[in-house]
Amino acid sequence: MSERVYDLVIIGSGPGGYIAAVRAAQLGMTVAIVEAGALGGVCLNVGCIPTKALLHSADLLDEVREGKRFGIMVEGLSFDLAGAMKHKDAVVKASTDGVAFLMKKNKVEVVAGWGRLAGRGQVHVQLNAGGERTLAAKQIIVATGARPRPFPGVEFDGQRVLSSTDALKLSAVPKSLLAIGAGAIGVEFASMYRAFGAEVSVVEALPRIVPNEDEEVSAELVKAFQRRGIKTLAGARVESIDVGDEQVVVTLTAADGKQQQLAVAQLLVAIGILPNTEDIGLEAAGVQRNARGFIETDGTMRAADGIYAIGDCVAAVPWLAHKASAEGVLAVEHLAGLHVTPIDYGKIAACTYCSPEIASVGLSEARAREQGYDVKVGKFPFSANGKARVLGQSRFGFVKLVADRRYGELLGMHMIGPRVTELISEGGLALTHEATGESLLQTIHAHPTLYEAIGEAAHALEHGTALNL
Ligand code: NAD
After folding, report:
1. Active centre residues (catalytic)
2. Domain range holding 79?
3. Does residue 154 belong to any structural domain of this protein?
4. 53 pocket-lining for ligand 1 (C-beta < 6 Å)
């Protein structure tokens, strides 16, 4: 019997890999997906999904604490971390079962093991069950993802020094927690464990927390965190980390140049990612990596002849699940010979699920100016939004629109406040369709909603001031 040749073999089953598999099957290809760990990759197992499940418990807890203002009295309120973890585990299981179902429905063969590129059109798999197998493929997609980056010289031990993966399976709420790094992971876990009752601080090397967001968003988050009792230290340099049996002592130089020592029960290191690009046969296959180990691709995700790469293991940013999925679809459609449009990486929405939430798409005000635009800005606070008041969440937050004064095109939408991770869909659509402030104004926003704040910000953008302010 001649060896089976798959149309496509994918290494890695995260939101990049498994979505690529589904799309390829839809296009009539025979597909195998190689996965050494659990189906669904980081996102479903130890990333987006479990974090958001725990953050929902955190938000609910905070809301119940505020119950009195809504006439809801709860006596003897308590929090059970194990219960929250159980909810998280159930959500993860339902999600990963969903991927298994999708693979079956689309007749994608799942091969459990470690995949390596092994010569043209070949993927060698060290099977989890023992033994090995070589898969022959017309095309290959590398979707091996990334892992948490440790602080130089300090290993993750799962006890005192935690990665985000470790922080998702604690058996008790830390007495005190320090997050190094105030990107998405740092602020999400800070927010979560503060709601669960920990003393929390966050240290960021760059001059402001959530440094990829608009400056005003960073400033608003500092205020909101301050009120929640979360200490933030931006522009700080971590000098040393001393891991003891009972505590971790972090010595840092603060923004004012003074040295400080912080002693905490547990440390979360959230300083970015390392790509999973070692030991998968890339060099021999002619796949180029950049200095930090991320795979270089062209605009159609091609990394070498017959090899595509997508998701967190590639150099293109942002490293987000929805970007990985979009790259998966793009790669598959390209290798299938369909007409494709390269991804516009500048128009991918980013959502951070701290409390208050943050969401943005496009250029911040500062970046738009750096790029030479004559910028105009429209802003509207949630304090003047009826629905935010109804929810009891009008204290912090706003919608900020950044547009080009010359042609009116919207360049960016930035939000912090209640449920903005849902509201940002309007921003994504607006930027993709090259909306202007004027065209946004012609969209009549329903009342009472949180997204009315977008219409009000558009009014401020076009007429200098909002209506309900
Ligand atoms: P990140 O790159 O988003 O943030 C890391 C932060 O750590 C940066 O602000 C950086 O300046 C800071 N930093 C680096 N070295 C430092 C040091 N020595 N001292 C102090 N600060 C330091 O990475 P992350 O938060 O670890 O997240 C990893 C990846 O996962 C990112 O790509 C992120 O976008 C993604 N992620 C996304 C979400 C979401 O979309 N909601 C949630 C979690 C993670």
Report:
1. 447
2. 5-148+274-345
3. no
4. no
